[in-house]
Write a structure and sequence with these properties.
Shape of chain A: flat
Helix content of chain B: 55-70%
CATH architecture of chain A: Orthogonal Bundle
Number of domains of chain A: 1
Distance between the termini of chain A: 33 Å
Helix content of chain A: 40-55%
Distance between the termini of chain B: 48 Å
Number of helices of chain A: 3
Largest sheet of chain A: 2 strands, antiparallel
Largest interface: A-B, 25 and 24 residues
Shape of chain B: globular
Radius of gyration of chain A: 15 Å
Structural class of chain A: alpha+beta
Order of helices and strands of chain B: HHHHHHH
Largest sheet of chain B: none
Structural class of chain B: mainly alpha
Strand content of chain B: under 5%
Number of strands of chain B: 0
Number of domains of chain B: 1
Oligomer: heterodimer
CATH topology of chain A: Arc Repressor Mutant, subunit A
Strand order of the largest sheet of chain A: 1-2
Number of helices of chain B: 7
Order of helices and strands of chain A: EEHHEEH
């Protein structure tokens, strides 16, 4: 499987799926903040740790020898199923 | 102010459990497959896990944690590839000799494989699993396999 790595604040490398998750997590944290400043990196780190613990994200050494993150095959399968279901629902309308 | 330090994300015990569970799933996929090359899917997953542990210089410690989680104990330092194979494969289908051969092959790949080359392609290019295992043994890597 081809993995596209995006650089987030030059620090945490992750694939497209996880990068989208990070975008959502950061937006959600910005909306609910109570005067507490947070950074995108911190939100991403928290999110990745949670996804890793649930078996949805994993680390690997990328083509440049750096540790990066990608969605596990399980998460990819789950997202594919959701997409298929959404397309089926669309056809039913 | 954003921190200038690289963000470090700890590898939790839950993450360890999830990683071992994922590899056990990969092992079951191999068992259910009739494809001779299916084993490369499992071995690639083991290789990927140990590679990033090694990148953080924590492969031996984490392999020890994995063994402990699965109820194994050893007074000696574990060889990471052999330890993770032991923790995630079936002992009947992967006996001591097979696990030793796979771990030697993976050590050979860790030493000589390019970052971009898939494990399967590398091993096939080098003459197969047995040949790779022999090569690392000739280079003196056999003594590291303690599991």
């Amino acid at each position: 499987m081809q993995v596209t790595i995006l650089k987030i604040a030059m620090q945490i490398l992750m694939d497209k799926i996880l990068s989208e998750y990070a975008d959502q997590a950061f937006e959600a944290s910005r909306l609910r903040r109570n005067g507490v400043q947070t950074t995108r990196d911190l939100v991403s780190a928290e999110m990745l740790a949670e996804l890793e613990a649930t078996g949805d994200a994993m680390r690997f050494v990328d083509g440049e020898g750096q540790v990066a993150w990608k969605a596990t095959p399980r998460l990819c399968d789950h997202l594919r199923d959701l997409e298929r279901d959404a397309l089926d629902d669309l056809e039913d309308i | 102010m954003p921190s200038l330090e690289p963000t470090t994300i700890p590898f939790s015990i839950e993450a360890m459990r999830a990683s071992l569970l994922r590899l056990e799933g990969d092992w079951e996929t191999v068992q259910a497959s009739r494809n001779r090359d299916a084993i490369y899917g499992y071995l690639t997953a083991v290789f990927e896990l140990i590679s990033w542990w090694e990148e953080e210089r924590k492969a031996v410690t984490r392999a020890g944690r994995a063994l402990h989680l699965r109820g194994y104990s050893s007074a000696r330092q574990p060889e990471p590839f052999a330890a993770i194979i032991l923790c995630t494969s079936d002992h009947c289908d992967a006996d001591d000799r097979t696990r030793s051969k796979w771990s030697r092959m993976l050590r050979y790949a860790a030493e000589y494989k390019g970052l971009d080359e898939p494990l399967r392609d590398f091993v096939k290019r080098k003459g197969g699993i047995n040949r790779c295992a022999e090569r690392i043994a000739r280079l003196g890597g056999r003594q590291r396999s303690l599991f």
